[in-house]
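Narrative of activities, Objective 1.

The group set out to show that a structural description can be obtained from nothing but a protein's sequence at a throughput compatible with the screening campaign. Below is one input-output pair from the validation batch, recorded exactly as produced.
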Amino acid sequence: MALRGRSVVKLRGLSIASVLLAALTGFLLAFSAPSFALQFTDITDVSGVGDRGQGEGVAFADVDGDGDQDLYVSNSGGENVLFLNDGAGIFLPAPRETGDRLDDSGMSMGSCFGDIDNDGDQDLYIVKGGRYEVQANRLLVNENGRFEDATRRAGVGSREFSYSAAFADVDNDGYLDLYLANNGVGAKNILYRNKGDGTFIDITDTAGVGDRSWSWSAVFSDVNGDGFQDLYVVNGRYPGGESNHLYMNNGNGSFRDVSHDSGVDDGNWGLGAAFADVDADGDFDLFVSNFVGPNKLFLNDGSGIFTDVSHASGLDDGGWGTGPSFGDVDHDGDMDLYEGDGKFANKLYLNDGSGVFKNIVDEHSELRNETVRTKGTAFADIDNDGDLDLYVVNWGVSNRLYRNDLNDRRFLKVLLRGTVSNADAVGARVSIFRTGKLIGVQEVRTLTGFCSLAPLELHFGLPVAGDYQLDIVFPSGIRTSGTYSSGQAVTIVERK
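Output recorded for this entry:
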């Protein structure tokens, strides 16, 4: 493995046998590149995560530091649940002593993990959506594996009707800030700046992001490639919809509203949005899932100017769109899309590599969740076998977990650790190349889709096994690159 730059790299979960298997697989694929059949298996019952609450959100994170993805489910009625993963995709509810009211009941929506104090573990912000003290949002700080309530000390106990929360380092000072998407008449969204001492300050007005629309989701991404996180807010109310807003980061902790000029001020009733490089040109495109009105796909020209290609892409469905999630489910090197639908059937769209999609859910009928009100969705490798499994949150009926049985070893998993940047490296950009050709780019994010948090670990599907080059830019601007073989999970630590 050749490296350039002073990064620290670790291989995780690899035995000698697995390394030899990856090498043999790469040798064979170099000549034949066989086609592996995409297949999902419903493992909800055996995995133990079929929660039947009034589900809203899903958040994956390795909360106990054992190298696998644990799962937090937010219910808007009934208790929330933290499920701990045994490493093979079997989950058990965390004991009550794991946290201070970790099973918080109330109107929980899009709760979010993030390392707010840079101590190497995942803290939890619970979005409650209430207007009374008992329903105020809560921050639980992870202290040696136990979650302790730090809301009052941190100053983030908002009583607005918050629907989702997202962490991002908006000023690149090395600490995760917090944005709330709030809902209701007169409600204003809130941006809290992390002061680095365990407390936050409300900078909404000076930052210029106090959207007073009915907001459902807020997703961060660096859409113009300047190294700062921009903000997209998804809005809407019945019956006529409401314009979404794109706020461009000025690089000094303030933002400017470029919604109209950028071309993404969609005026339908939106619920979720997700950024991904769908056409492999090195920038982040935008999908908007609309509850009322057709869904939208906007292609980014790299400078933050977008073109509506919804119809040409095959993604202008007019259902009751809710929770979109991007991921390379078939390991052909491009980003596919799963979308929840609150009325009809959910969709699984495969990308042809150019940003044109085909819905193949009828070939995988177990993923349809027909006539079920799906809310949040997220891809995660829950059994550490190298392919993306799928968790679907449903309202009032059992949530579902689907195991991806691809098992083809054509993947690279990349976990970044910030030292100068925030510890989670949220906002870092990773580009992947094969013999000098760009395959795609991904970004470390918290909230995506609708009330959903995918793992911080980036998952790259690969068109063939072999060696690939990674180019990594941390939020601090520190850059490193290296060559890695397929079938690996690597941890890369930021170094000056």
